[in-house]
Amino acid sequence: MDKNNIPRHIAIIMDGNRRWAKKRGLPAFKGHQQGYEQFKKIAEHCSKLGVKILTVYAFSLENWKRSRREVFFLMNLFKKGLQEQRDYFRKNKIKLNVMGQIERLPDALKNLVYKIMAETKNNKERILNLAISYGGREEILVAVKKILKEKTSPSKISEKIFSQYLYTAGQPDPDLVIRTSGEERLSGFLPWQSVYSELYFSPKLWPDFTENDLEEVIKEFQNRQRRFGQ
């Protein structure tokens, strides 16, 4: 692996937690718990490798349709995770950016999200984009509504201007998008930002995706030629 050619921005669809649990005869929440543990390892490894921005798809708008019990567990898991990592964000100068319909989150989680985002807004070392209650088309619609509300002249709207109304405003687009579990689609993840991203679909379920797997994906990325249509 060429350490001088590490993707600046990696985005991950962490898929396969429930299937991981089912294969082992475990309840779904065990898979989500293991998925969280694996996320911490992968996020730390991204940091060690020099990745500056990590974006992870944790909970989609469609996921609200799951059972109340599973959604309740996931919301508590998100809250626990953010509480655990709060000091880590501060000490390592990581900016937390939660992307999605934050207002739909339970009050305790919503308030915690706003507090940590405020606490970390000036951190410059790295960025963690956490997509919770997120939908890609919804993100684009939100951006359009903001532009209309500001009554911006159509002649002044460019791709660069439009990007400033997205949840990732001010950030470079992902160099690499990874999806685990063998599914080969983006499922509404970053439809605007991922148009020139390199895509990698891993057959491994998310809780089985290791630091070595991440390095192999980066090696594959480094062997590709990114021409951006040229």
Strand content: 15-25%
Q: Gyration radius, to the nearest Å?
A: 18 Å
H-E order: EHHEHEHEHHEEH
CATH architecture title: 3-Layer(aba) Sandwich
Instruction: Give the CA-CA distance, first to last residue.
Output: 26 Å
CATH class: Alpha Beta
The count of DSSP E runs of length 2 or more, i.e. the number of strands, is 6
CATH homologous superfamily label: Decaprenyl diphosphate synthase-like
Task: Estimate the helix proportion, in percent.
Answer: 40-55%
What number of structural domains do the residues give? 1
What is the number of helices?
7
The third-level CATH topology is Undecaprenyl pyrophosphate synthetase
Structural class: alpha/beta
**Strand order, sheet with most strands:** 3-4-2-1-5-6
Main sheet summary: 6 strands, parallel
Oligomerization: single chain
Q: Which residues form runs of ≥5 with pLDDT under 50?
A: none
Shape: globular
Layout of secondary structure:
Elements (H helix, E strand, L loop, with lengths): L8 E5 L3 H7 L4 H22 L3 E8 L7 H24 L2 E6 L7 H14 L5 E9 L1 H14 L9 H5 L12 E4 L18 E4 L9 H12 L8
Parallel strand pairs: 1-2, 1-5, 2-4, 3-4, 5-6
Helix pairs in contact: 1-2, 2-3, 3-4
